[in-house]
Structures are given as structure tokens and as C-alpha cells.
Amino acid sequence: MTDTPDSGPSSAASSTSSHWRSRVLVGLCIGGATVLAIFWGGWFWTLFCLSMVLLCTQELFGILAVKGLNPSRRLVITTSVVLLVMAQFQQRQYLLPTLTIGTILSFVRLLFRWPQATIGDLAASLLATFYVGFLCAHFVLLRELGADASPNPFEQVGLGYVLMTCLVVSASDIGSYYTGKRLGKTPLFPNLSPKKTWEGALGGACFAVLTGLICTALLPLPCFHGLVLSVLLVASAQLGDLVESLIKRDAGVKNSGVLLSGHGGFLDRLDSYLFSGAVAYYYLLWFVHQEGIYRDIRSIIGS
Fold this sequence. Notes:
Layout: H1 9-40, H2 42-66, H3 73-88, H4 95-113, H5 119-143, H6 157-183, E1 187-189, E2 193-197, H7 198-217, H8 223-251, H9 266-288, H10 293-302
Helix pairs in contact: 1-2, 2-3, 2-5, 3-4, 3-5, 4-5, 5-9, 6-7, 6-8, 6-9, 7-8, 8-9
């Protein structure tokens, strides 16, 4: 008689420990690569963001395919690449024309694919372009803020802005997870994400705001703006997480992909960041650097 493998508590504990080691290792690798790309800035950061866009877009295509949707993949990818290149060159005035042309071409593509194509395919093309490519381009814009003031990365405010944004969002994710795991009782959105709780959300918010205030003390950023920005980042991070949960729930999939051991897919890992980069960029541009809408309003009032 041969002994059967032990599948008791010790085996389960070993499997859990291995899972967490893998999860931590993957997280450290991604975090390290992200920090290096942020520090180098320029095309290093743009290419890093572009690689994330391509990976997340491919995963989103897979989710949409489950729903029977067939977006114009090459058009979405081309438009996303152009958006990030325009952001790298700080050509904000060309972002809207790029989106306009991409939208028109999506309609044209629909005409040539008829009757196989549907309105749903058109909507899926626009969703993929705006949700991933356009939003991610703001991280490139954010890193390039003040980059022309000095070639030294430590003297470029964009470096600190991107690091602060990433750290606050990460703190929100980590704080929400551990607080919710230990204290969570009240479901936040049970129909979308049953494991998320109000206790976890509040715990993550407190942890994230504290992280934001620490970052603010190290940056040339007034405390008031640091506090407001941290709160906005917490809200956008948790909203981004819920939005991706909505997309997956509607498609009936658990993870966006399986490339990251213990983390699901790249879209699962980056969903909290997609909204946050745009929120940080426009807040800092308008209210700290006093450009864009803020400057336009002041000129209208002054005239």
C-alpha cells in the first residue's frame, strides 16, 4: 500500500506561503521597474507606459471578446501610441485632434466591416482608446511637468508628482486590502465586488492620505494642495478599481489576465492608477502651476 500525498493543513499552508512569496516577488519586480522608469523619465518612462498600455489593451480586448465585441484592434493601438508620443513631446493641443481622428476612423472602419461589425464594436473601440490609451497618456504628461527646467531628475517636479501619485494609490490599495481583511464587515458594492468593504475603503483612505502628506513634505508642494490631491487620488483610485470590477463582472470573468502570478492581469494591477494619473495631472496643472482652465478663468475675470 502506497502513501498518498499529504493534502492536510500543512500542505495548504505551504501552498498559501508559496502563493504569497510569488505575489510579493512579482510586486517587487513591477515596483522596481516602475521606479527606475519614473526616475529616468523621458522616452524611458514613455516606453514603459506604452508597454503597459499595450498589455492592458490586449487584456481588455480579451474581456470584450467574451461579450462578443470585436473592436478595431489596430486602430485602437495606433491611436494609443500616437497619444503617448504626443504626450512625450508635451503637445497637449494634439491630443484632442488625435482622439477626433481616431473616433472618425472608428466609424469609417465600422462601415467597411458591415454587416459583420456592430455598434457595440464601435463602442468597444472607443472604450479601449479612452479607458487605456488616453488616460495613461496623462502619466507621461505628469512626468514631463517641469522637465525642461533642469536635466537633473531630482530637480524635475514631475518626478516627485508621479512618485507621489503612485505611492498614494499603492497605499490606498494596500491599506484597503489589509484593513478590509481584518476589520471589514460592511460591503461597499456587493453586486460588483463582494470582498470590498466600507471599513477597508476608509482604512485605505487614511493610509493613503498619510502617505500623501509625507510625500508633500518632501516636495515643493503646499500642504493644502497635498492634502486635497491625496483625497482626490484616493477617490479616483477606488473608483478606478470599481470600474474595472464592473467591466469584469459584466463579462463574467474573474481576472483580466494571468500573466502576473498572484495579481491576475496587468489591467487588474493598474486599474486604480488609470484615473489617478489624469486627476493628478489636471489638479497640479490647473491649481498648483496655475495653467489651463485656472489661467483662462483669471484672464476672463481680469478682462
